[in-house]
Specification:
- Helix content is 4%, strand content 62%.
- By secondary structure, the chain is mainly beta.
- The chain has a 14-stranded antiparallel β-barrel.
- Strand 19 and strand 20 form a beta hairpin.
- The longest helix has 16 residues.
- It is elongated.
Length: 417
């Protein structure tokens, strides 16, 4: 089918163009910045959509939504995002307080083979680490002298998934997303003398892998002729990621001074819950709201001046769909407009301050009669606070999504003479 060749061509060409350069200092903790965006139809609504259902778009906020896809069509989606960040705080150089990047985010496909069963598979991000900063290190035995430790880290986790949902009684849909998390995070620490010359460097690499399950449920119904209501929920159980660690100490000429024995342990992702509601009037106006919670405190992760604590995210969104009636009295959506707001209490607490992320988003989409849709959304947010110990990130992100739909087979009737 032509949709597969289009997706393959776009994804290969996009990967060559995109590179990540954004500096996210707080991503040094845990598994980094956990990606709370789905890069889909709900992105313009602050990624609110645990109860959202769509016939033409793959909305993986809740795997139970896949049963809403149009029957006997295959859909594919590609997404990319550009982000710019400004940093503010006591230790930030005002001449170098900005970073930006453009990254390819996902490639997925989905279809509904039967009247009740929807399915989807693809590759999406799960978390990312990318940081770079200097930290003074006092020299033992020397008065008022200090060396500098330069920290650099990058990497993250990706998720390859297969999700399925089944519809019962045209009112209840259950879903299961079976995925595999994989990836690595690398940290390089370079110790510099007071003159800025390298003394020694340490390279730490951790690879993490394991399966991951997300369960979904949606109940949907109509109230009268104008109102549609959907309630949704998701749950992921505690998951232990197998973490393999390596450490190499290098001299300034890159010769190996020490290679530590490889070790294995586990990094645990806690139980995750989410609930949401969607209310639609006249198939045109939709109001959505979500709440998500992760039980990090039960895992007792902590370190120097930081602790991983319970996280929660609140979001609301609103969508206006512009439609017109075709000759056969079917409604066809030509475009849509969205906006949303979110408040996120991160799982990272530093110097007794839990990081908070607050922002909003807007989005617009245009649908072609030929099965191609384009969605653009903009998000602006503020993360952290500005003081002598912490810094604040003010960021803006532009997300571009291409969605394609194609018939699984020719549905035209054949007339025999």
């Amino acid at each position: 089918m032509k949709i597969f060749s289009i997706i393959l061509l776009l994804s290969v060409s996009s990967v060559e163009l995109f590179a990540q350069t954004n500096n996210s200092p707080y991503s040094i903790f845990g598994i980094g910045d956990i990606d709370d965006s789905y890069y889909n139809r709900t992105t313009g609504m602050a990624n609110t959509g645990l109860a959202y259902r769509s016939a033409n778009f793959i909305t993986l906020n809740n795997p139970a939504s896949l049963s809403a896809l149009g029957t006997h069509y295959i859909a594919g989606e590609l997404a990319g995002r550009g982000t710019m960040i400004n940093y503010y705080g006591a230790g930030v150089n005002e001449n170098y307080n900005q970073s930006s990047d453009i990254t390819f985010k996902k490639i997925i496909i989905g279809t509904k083979p039967t009247n009740h069963w929807g399915t989807s598979a693809g590759l999406v991000p799960f978390s990312s680490q990318n940081y770079e900063f200097n930290n003074p290190q006092p020299i033992l035995g020397a008065l008022n002298e200090a060396s500098t430790a330069y920290y650099q880290g990058n990497g993250g986790l990706n998720k390859v998934y297969w999700a399925n949902s089944y519809d019962f009684f045209n009112h209840v849909s259950v879903g299961l997303e079976a995925s595999y998390l994989f990836g690595s995070v690398a940290q390089k620490i370079i110790l510099l003398d007071p003159n800025g010359n390298e003394i020694v460097s340490t390279n730490n690499t951790t690879t993490m892998t394991n399966g991951f399950l997300t369960y979904g449920l949606q109940y949907y119904t109509n109230i009268g002729k104008k109102w549609d209501v959907s309630i949704g929920g998701t749950f992921s159980n505690k998951t232990n990621l197998l973490a393999k660690n390596t450490q190499i100490v290098l001299a300034p000429d890159s010769s190996q001074l020490y290679v530590a024995p490889k070790t294995e342990n586990y990094f645990t992702i806690p139980k995750t819950y989410g609930v949401g509601i969607a209310i639609t009037r006249s198939k045109k106006y939709t109001l959505v709201a979500d709440y998500k919670f992760q039980n990090w405190s039960a895992l007792n992760y902590s370190g120097y001046n930081y602790v991983l604590t319970n996280s929660s995210r609140y979001s609301v969104g609103f969508e206006i769909s512009k439609q017109k009636t075709l000759i056969n009295n079917l409604l066809y959506e030509t475009s849509f407009f969205q906006f949303g707001f979110y408040y996120n209490k991160s799982y990272v607490q530093v110097f007794d301050q839990q990081l908070k992320d607050i922002g909003g988003s807007v989005g617009v989409g245009i649908n072609s009669k030929h099965g191609v849709s384009y969605t653009i959304s903009f998000q602006y947010g503020v993360k952290g606070i500005e003081n002598t110990q912490l810094l604040q990130q003010r960021y803006g992100s532009l997300t571009f999504i291409v969605s394609l739909r194609d018939a699984l087979y020719n549905t035209r009737k054949v007339r025999f003479l």
